[in-house]
Amino acid sequence: MKEINSENDHGTEKLRKTVLITGGAGGIGQELAKLFARDGYDLVLVDRVKEELKQVRDALQGIDLKMRILLLEQDLTETDAASKVHEFTCDHSLRIDVLVNCAGFGTYGFVNDIDEDRELDMLQLHVIALYRMTRLYLKEMVKRNDGRVINVSSMSAFQPNPYFATYGASKSFVLNFSRALNYELKEKGLNVRVLAVCPTAVRDTGFKAAAGMEHTKAFRSWMSVNAGVVAHDTYLALDCDRDIVIPGRGLGLLQRIACRLPVSWLMRISRSELRENSRFLSREMFICSPEKGADQ
After folding, report:
1. Which long-range contacts does 285-292 make (Cβ < 8 Å, 24+ apart)?
2. Nearest in space to 31 (alpha carbons), one of 216, 209, 199
3. How many Å apart are CA 125 and CA 103, to the nearest integer?
4. Are 190 and 177 in contact (CB under 8 A)?
5. Which residue has the higher pLDDT, 118 or 1?
6. For the chain, what is the domain count?
7. Listed residue (70, 73, 79) closest to 16, CA to CA
8. Burial of 295 (0-12, 13-18, 19+ CB in 10 A)
9. Structural domain containing residue 138
């Protein structure tokens, strides 16, 4: 999706497109912002921490000094968050050409051991906020017959995930909701598309620490990727006639093979990847033990 030209009474003027990215202060969202910036887009970045947003803005501004970057500090787990974001873009008379629903976090462990309110916040973010954001901006895109929505799902969306149960289920909603919407839009002959992004474990974001998954095998697996790869493959898929992208070389083919396996096998594979690696736990205990032992 490149810049377009518009003829007016004053000659040829470039009309810059605008992308709105939730979770834009880091990780995949920040990497996508870089790619859109290099392609001449103006940016609207939404995240919870204003200072982190400002740091990202300062880093991105050097890509294109003419680029407009708007920041919105907003916790998307709030029940009216999507309406507040939409109100912000309307107040600034912004036409959102691309919506990227990238904000998210995970919970890990046996369901009864996880804080219920945290999981409810996650469901609010992954399901309700994403649903409402998509509906609000999709309505405008359909009206003008132009636009793209990118919804970040996960490889966890394809099967049940023991000890990652609620997260995986929420991402299954994102995947199936996005693919169904894209089908409807194509059937209506509209130039509006919805793309679901399903990465494996992403090594270089704050996700694993926030979810308490630093010692799980998934983030040290050969199948794990970094945020730059996810953003790159997503951006390439944006204007292709696809409803899903699995970032990383060969991982899409691997998923097509895996989907032929019984669900019980897939759950065992998922559990194996999500198990804590005892070798790394033992190493950390060894490193910490002399200091702890001094008082014993």
Report:
1. none
2. 199
3. 8
4. no
5. 118
6. 1
7. 70
8. exposed
9. 4-293
* Residue 8: CATH number of its domain: 3.40.50.720
What is the pTM assigned to this prediction?
0.86
- Of 291 and 215, the structure prediction assigns the larger pLDDT to 215
The Cβ of residue 254 has, within 10 Å, a number of other Cβ atoms equal to 14
111-141 pLDDT, tens digit each: 999 999 999 999 999 999 999 999 999 999 9
* Cβ atoms of 156 and 171 closer than 8 Å: yes
- Checking 166-171 for CB contacts under 8 A at 24+ apart, the result is 166/107, 166/111, 166/114, 166/119, 166/122, 166/123, 167/106, 167/107, 167/108, 167/122, 167/126, 167/211, 168/270, 170/122, 170/123, 170/126, 170/127, 171/126, 171/198
For residue 261, how many other CB atoms are within 10 A of its CB? 12
Residue 180 carries which side chain, given as an amino acid letter? A
Residues in the chain: 296
